[in-house]
Design brief:
Shape: globular
CATH class: Alpha Beta
Number of domains: 1
Largest sheet: 6 strands, mixed
Order of helices and strands: HEHEEEHEHEHEHEHH
Structural class: alpha/beta
CATH topology: Rossmann fold
Number of helices: 8
CATH superfamily: P-loop containing nucleotide triphosphate hydrolases
Strand content: 5-15%
Length: 274
């Protein structure tokens, strides 16, 4: 076994064996690391999930997550894909634009106020959103360490208006979760990934990772792609270990996420009625 294989196997084993119980203060009431994928539609969220499964399972390439067939659909399955016993990756609905309507729904997903693996319907109705938040209290989810992951395709490019919307979304992700999202740049060989990296760093993002996903048409194993995918997952667990070095209260954090979302929805409603 050469040096590369030892490194890849060692990192893969670390990811597969990762446990929140081994963090500085133990699991503190958390039982899962939830990687929440967000971004514009068609930027590679689904292929990133398939690539992660491919690299970690180390078997045949399979399509687990499929890209949404339509940007006009108002329903979508918020689907979770377990990577290990502890780590789950979530394919949240992509956006056509980060306007107040769509971001309100995204923050509801980010805060785990919309259930996993169920068909959900997006709404712009304030009362409906409040009812949904109240319904979520029947079975509250506060045991996930949430890591937001913003997936962005280099070949798409950010328009000037999208930069402002994206920065606001990234800032609000940090307010909700306490951490900046990790940005994953996909299709890195199809555009100026250095320029894209600079733009996100100027938005305050601390961790920008460049990858080329495996696909159905191109899934021949390469050293570079395996290392990129493993580096992405390893970086997330490094962040989790850092966050878990400090005392946390999962129930209190969920309450704070709900306060943020209620304030956002209220301000959105006021602005829409002006």
């Amino acid at each position: 076994m050469d040096g590369y294989e030892r490194t890849v196997d060692r990192v893969r084993d670390y990811i597969l064996q990762f446990s929140l119980d081994n963090c500085a203060f133990g699991n503190q009431g958390y039982n899962r690391v939830l990687l929440q994928l967000f971004g514009y539609m068609g930027h590679g969220k689904s292929t990133l999930i398939n690539s992660c499964k491919y690299v970690l399972d180390d078997g045949e390439y399979r399509i687990y997550a499929k890209a949404s067939a339509s940007i006009s659909s108002v329903t979508f399955n918020r689907t979770a894909y377990p990577l290990t016993n502890i780590i789950t990756i979530v394919d949240n609905r992509g956006c056509s634009t980060f306007n107040a309507y769509e971001t309100g729904e995204i923050y509801a997903q980010l805060g785990n106020f919309i259930p996993l693996n169920e068909k959900v319907e997006w709404t712009n109705n304030y009362e409906d959103m409040i009812d949904r938040l109240e319904d979520s209290e029947m079975d509250p989810n506060f045991t996930d360490v949430t890591i937001p992951v913003f997936v962005y395709s280099v070949k798409k490019g950010l328009a000037e208006g999208e930069k402002k919307e994206t920065k606001e979304f990234i800032d609000n992700c940090r307010k909700m979760t306490g951490v900046y999202p990790i940005v994953v740049l996909t299709h890195k060989t199809y555009g100026d990934f250095l320029q894209a990296e600079r733009e996100f760093q100027l938005m305050g993002v601390e961790n920008v990772i460049k990858i080329e996903n495996y696909t159905k048409e191109d899934h021949g194993r390469t050293q570079g792609r395996h290392k990129e995918i493993l580096h992405f997952l390893y970086s997330i667990l490094e962040d989790v270990n850092f966050q878990m070095k400090y005392k946390r209260n999962p129930r209190k954090e969920r309450v704070e996420r709900k306060k943020f979302l209620l304030k956002f929805l209220h301000e959105r409603e006021v602005n829409q009625n002006l």
